[in-house]
Write a structure and sequence with these properties.
By secondary structure, the protein is of the alpha+beta class. It is built from 16 helices and 16 strands. Strands 8, 9, 10, 12 and 14 form a five-stranded antiparallel sheet that branches. The protein has a four-stranded antiparallel sheet with strand order 13-11-15-16, with no helix packed on it. The protein has a three-stranded antiparallel sheet with strand order 3-4-5, with no helix packed on it. The structure holds iron/sulfur cluster (SF4) (2 copies). One iron/sulfur cluster binds near residues 280, 283, 285, 298 and 299.
Amino acid sequence: MREPLRRPAPKVKVIPIVEESLYEVQKKIYPRAVTGVFATWRWILVWATQLVFYGLCWLEWNGRQAVLFDLVHRKFYIFGLVFWPQDVFYLAVLLIISALALFLFTAIAGRLWCGYACPQTVYTEIFMWVERVIEGDRMARMKLDAQPMSARKLALKSAKHGAWALIALWTGFTFVGYFTPIKTLVQETIAWNLGPWETFWILFYGFATWGNAGFMREQVCKYMCPYARFQGVMFDPDTLIVTYDAERGEPRGSRSKKTDHRAAGLGDCVDCGICVQVCPTGIDIRNGLQYECIGCSACIDACDQVMDKMGYPRGLIRYSTENALAKHWGRKDILRHVLRPRTLVYGAVLSAIVIAFAWALATKVPLKVDVIRDRATLAREVEDGRIENVFRLQIMNTAEEPRRFAIGVVGLEGIEIASDKTVDIPAATTQSVSVRVRAEPGAGSRGSNRILFEVRAVGHEDVFVREKASFLLP
Ligand code: SF4
Ligand code: SF4
């Protein structure tokens, strides 16, 4: 009897299930300390920006805080100038100037702002310095983090976080000190009497500083800052960027100092990896321009030191341009291309706006007048047969001294003010004044007639404002 045919069992392919997270696991970066020309410049900028930030709020001017954004009374004091909500124009111009300056400097030298002056960079630099002083440099910190918790580790971590918290709280306190007079803030703090909003903002700003500079660090630049994303459009082949000279550096490889690396077929890069170790964003500049590069130049300083040790010329990593690398330009050619249509246009527009802004500030009259018609009384005939219109004048004395203002009116024959012609207004105060204006019925055409109110500070002839209004004749 024949054996029944058996089909071979089908082969089952086992596919291993691999779980993949949609989010990149964040590796902690331990930047190594670096010294050099650019590190010195970074620290100069840290000192300069922080001296201004922490110091400016303690300066006095005319018996008050020199720089104070008094949101409650809607007045911004900047040394001798007082800005009101009506002066939003100045703020708009200031923002335009900042944006244009950013465009110009980015077109010339890439992410200068990010690398040297951005608060995120500056506070990260300060926090990393504290970390280094307490926990040690890169290797010591890596070793400490890998260790299980011990009394020493706890003490070091507590000291670091304590120092960070102090800096962060002082930063929050200073920030709020620009909105509430800082001396009042100190008194309130000593008396344990801080208001709820002040407490909230000090803690909030302090917490943001502690979190951003202590923990988030490069992630703020990589994932949160929009500037990193759109800066590429401001770059062109003549923009100075931190670059690795691959032509000179490759093929990379370790060697002893005595080796004739050219004969051995090696480039200048000894593949020591120090440029990666010092990078605060943890990238390898040898892979080309990357959006994570904040242009801090730490890798330039680090590589220059390696080149010095090896006896090679400096500048394997350096500020250069795409064109300069491709066409082997020297410094002179690079500098010559700083002046190109894009930078000239940015520069010209920026200069024009800065000059106009300075002129507007220098000639700013410390007086504003708004005319509002009294809607309850349009036009009425008074006892002497003349026509009276009532207006409400909002007079803002933006000077820091009380002043008397004379009010006049012109525009129709015989037109005059029938109410008080002067008003006393305290320093930096707005006052609403009701003004009755009279004219003969035949002084103008029926309906609306254009008139001008003239308000002048008595004893200060240059403080003078003219404001249009309509006088109604029946
Ligand atoms: S520091 Fe310089 S030599 Fe060392 S790996 Fe980086 S580029 Fe190469
Ligand atoms: S690559 Fe160099 S310049 Fe760019 S962030 Fe890293 S260290 Fe700074």
